[in-house]
Structures
1.
Amino acid sequence: MSDLTRLTVTAAREGLAQGHFTATELTRAYVEAVEAAGALNAFVLATPERALDMARASDERIAKGEAGRLEGIPLGIKDMFATNGVRTTACSNIIGNFVPPYESTVTSQLWRDGAVLLGKLNQDEFAMGSSNESSAFGPVVNPWRRGGSTQPLVPGGSSGGSAAAVAAHICAAAAGTDTGGSIRQPAAFTGTVGIKPTYGRCSRWGIIAYASSLDQAGPIARSVNDAALLLGSMAGHDPKDSTSANLAVPDYEAAVGASVKGKRIGIPREYRVEGMSSEIVSLWDKGAQMLRDAGAEVVEISLPHTKYALPAYYIVALAEASSNLARYDGVRYGERVPGRDIAELYEKTRASGFGAEVRRRIMIGTYVLSAGYYDAYYLKAQKVRTLIKRDFENAFAEGIDAVLAPATPSAAFGIGEKSSGDPVEMYLQDVFTVTLNMAGLPGIAVPAGLSSEGLPLGLQLIGRPFGEESLFSLAQVIEDAAGRFDVTDKWWR
Amino acid sequence: MSVDQATVRRVAHLARIAVTEDEVAHLQGELNAILAFVDELGEVDTTDVEPMTSVIPMQLPLRADVVDDGFYPDRVLANAPLAEDGFFAVPKVVE
């Protein structure tokens, strides 16, 4: 029955509905695949018993004709989502034993629709990283390898466990989070599809906070249709998140395969950054041609403040992180390191519980918010953010429906290659993805080809606010033209 | 802008993160690398530009000011490293 893990969510749903196999059989196939994939380090907690219990309940609902739209589909969940009674750590030692007494809104909607929890997925600590190397549980290994090489590569980050697990077929799809590219960059590195919806589309309630004005949840999946199906379940208004948009959720699946004839696609000239690999440039040109062939009009546009998005992002994100992460004080949850007084207790607990990258980011955030520097850094960055958003608004006002850009500056790199030196080098991974988070816009990463070394490369489509449907239509054009990309050598088994 | 070692210690204290003397020099280098990177923003003319305060233009929702959740201290305290008599326990704060 191990062939069942080959099925997309869309195909598995069909097979379950037709009675070709049961949710229990499907879940068992994935449970076995998870057990056999320890070498990837993608799961930080597997929940096989809970998964099989949920699958049995799904089989009962299917038998009664009460199947939800994700009935019996086994999912992995990034460890940023609070899961009731299931350890949730953000892959940090500071809450290494935290068991939430509540469920995040997004995951509760997945269970409402019948999905099955396979376990919690590895990530960078508190979602701070672009390679999954900052996890307290150790790095995730990308299931993809360069042709002829056994060197372990990163899966990207921060949703590295999610992307690796989906690419390795050890979960049918996954829920991730994206603050500066944390869904789209790992999707591009693993040949999977990942969408960060418009800010406000998915509730942030019950998701461990990194940078609240940038964080959004979204799916990572093996096809555009799977991503559309998942997002339809994850999205929706939630009174418990005051930034959640009170808008009806469209039928995203209906948008997959819709015509893109006459759509105007912008190619931002400022995204042709120095040092971009020629492979990425040619992939980008090919993507534009795929959209043209489908009847879209491709035009060059200008987003003049692009180059300032990354530095402004690091100010805004780190400032918000320093504030959000103040709650980890060794009092209400997590490990405590005793001190002679409460201040020393806080300082020792936080020095011991947070990893190096998190400590560094909290300190930068604290510095830019401190007396005398607030205007120079934080206020300035928020003004630049207005300009970045305005760039996109101007493009949309001129009739642009979506923007096509690379998802990453390169293919996946080796574990350890970028993590030892200058932190800024790692930050440059996010150069094409952070602008959307700054502007609150939706973006989808879709695989579009392979590098000369046989690694997947992704393109990114950026939409108007709440324009996810257009993104699914356009991404499907690329999937149809480029095909899907599966790992052929399952070396970890 | 760049930071000196005294500033690194002050920021670490503000962030309530203990740092050892060995870490200070290292952190100083890292923080200065990041600050040099973000200094680029100085080039941008932001005269008369309003800072962004809301990602999606929307009215902040209001709700009735009533207690609609709670009354389960055991669940609230379940993850506490130290709890006593229905409270979080910490070292003495006020003499």
2.
Amino acid sequence: MAIVKMQKISICAHKSNRKAVLETLQSMGVMQLITEELDDQELMRMDTAEARSNFLKNADLADQALAVLNQYAPENKGFAASLAGKTEVSRTDYSKSVGEHKKTMAVVRQVLKEEKAISECRGIIQSDENQIGALTPWLGLDVPMTFQGTYKTAAFIGSVPGTVDEAQLYALIRDKEPELTTVSCEVLSSQNDATNISVLCLDKDKDKVESALRAAGFARPAQASAKVPAEAKAELEKDIEEQKKQISQLEAAIASKAGKRGDMEIAADFYRTRAEKYRMLGTIPQSKRVFFLEGWVPAESADRLAKVMEDRFGAVVGMEETREDEVVPTALHNNKFSSNFEGVLASYGLPAQGKADPTFIMSLFYFFFFGMMLSDAGYGILMVIGCFAAVRMFPKMEEGMKKFLNMFFWCGISTTFWGFMFGGFFGDVIDVVAKTFFGYTGPTPILKPLWFNPLEQPMQLLIWCLLFGVIHLFAGLGIKGYEYLKQGDAVGFVSDIVAWYMFLVGLILMLLPSDIFAGISGMTFQFPAWLNLVSKVITIAGLVIILLMSGRANKNWGLRIALGAYDIYGVTSWLSDVLSYSRLLALGLATGVIAQVINMMGSMAGGGVFGAIVFILVFVVGTALNMAINVLGAYVHTNRLQYVEFFGKFYDGGGEAFTPFQTANKYIEIKEEN
Amino acid sequence: MSMGMVLALFGAVLSTALAGMGSAWGVGVAGRAAAGVVSEDPNQFAKVLILQLLPGTQGIYGLLVTFITLSQIGILGGAQVADTNTGLMYLLACLPIAIVGLFSAYHQGMVSVASIGIVAKKPDQFGKAMLFPAMVETYAILALLISILSITNIPR
């Protein structure tokens, strides 16, 4: 359990080496640079904003092109891709590809241009389809919609409100102009409470017919084309076909550039890394001939870095003292087992420098509790195999992901252990299979629990869970005590830590032999008289110390006692914290019983071949579901026990993560060659 | 068939029905929020799916209590309930997870919606976002515990 010690160093070198120094720092990736406001008039900064935004723009373009490429020429990686990590590229290949980055960018632009053309084609198709939609009601017409009539006739093409048939239309005109007989009406279609009609009459009757139609609400169509609707539709359809052909050509053109994917990835990362370098470059204070850098380096790398800087660039490197008001960034360093649990700590908040790193102790409890909550040997073995295989298959996996899977690997081991302790192996699958398919009639369970069956003695396990909880919480209080001692605060240690230990241990010792406890747990404790006396003495001693000392920052004795009394009231929070560990029992039972339900449902079809097929189907699907939901449950609730109960006793995070200045690669990892 | 049997079965049914209703409700509202986030940022699928699932556990707890009850009252195992009072005790023992399951899953669903909002805005804060719904679940776990302890310890 350790927080990496940080050394503040300053580097001063000649201006001509500026970019080379930054590149070296970037590839070493061990230094977090401090960017401060300048207060010295003689120092200045280089304006790199434009160069940087150009690089970022290029990186962005390459990213977009890659996304387009993935759409039209998907890489066959599937789910595993998220585990595979970055592609490894050798230094020579990288340099070669970077040398051609202009060519690559031309391809990138070409891809984006083609993608833009595709979306234009799609837009045209959309508008064509809309036009066809507008034409559809008029398809019955064999003249253009704008047709007004011939030399001797007049035509009215348009729509009237409501649903009208031809007879009604004739009646409508006859009512207004009874003597008119040379009229031909045709209903083309009706839609949305409107009827599309065409009316033909003699040119001399034009006005009369028009007024009759107008009275009925006749209107000519808003958009009318000069073509016969059926012809116009055919033309539009032809256009759609053409656009589709063009799209598939463009898609093929994009897909044909799939071979350039590697180069594009390199180009994107190359520009991103450069942009990052220029961002830093813009923050470095410099004078006429030299420039200055200041930053944090893990103490163990400080000498190596200093040597590189001095030898290669003739820089002056100084080891600086940390100032009081500075926030030192935090990096964690733990053993192989515990480092896998750092992610749990990091998502709560890293410890500040000078505080204790609880990762090691937390990882032990995490391991222990996770297994208890899942407590099924079958599920545990599946987790172990799955995580181990995943980590083995993808050695280039991203570091955080690898740690996460390794954490589940260890939790799987713990789950297997607890599964055998409580006699759970895919629930009771061994018994069920033996009974259903092999006619077993002997005593069950066949797989006997090494400890006891929690479903038969839930009370006993509950007591154990609470005991584990008390140990967990006491460990948390202990870490707080360690921090007090490290700061040399003996008074605080006694009054805030030791007093609480005395008070709580005394209370527990007084509770154990009582009738209430015997009634609940069925366990009776007979303590010798001296132990009963001791328990009373330490409880009262602890109580008095807390009452008098916990408000010691106050001069006013009245207030001080009141604060002490309030702190003693905090014992209720201890009670609720301890009861919270009952989830160890509840979640453990949940996994086991649901697994039994699945086995029982599977065995309902009876023995024989058919029964076996049903059983396997139900078992596989059910186990997958139960495992998914219970692994999630165990993960969430183990986290909760750490965050709320354990950390609540001593830990408040508040550290800043160490973020060294490094390459900003998203796709590739450069492999150095010797 | 005794009245006790009817009451005991009623309790068993209630625990799955009510806790399941609560979970359906909670997972339902959380699912709508999750779908909204995925429509904007498909990369957050796994995270919001986990948050959506959190209120689903109450339904499982309810099922669990039903199963334990059924295996005690002679439907899936154990001896039939002979008298009304014993049946009533089974009914009462089922109530904690039935009622608390219903309400805690609903509220957990609401908290999940808010936590999905956290993931949408700050995907790296997933660890904290996951914790808020888990707080609500504590009470469902306590209710589950009391239901199980009561059912397994009803004198027969």
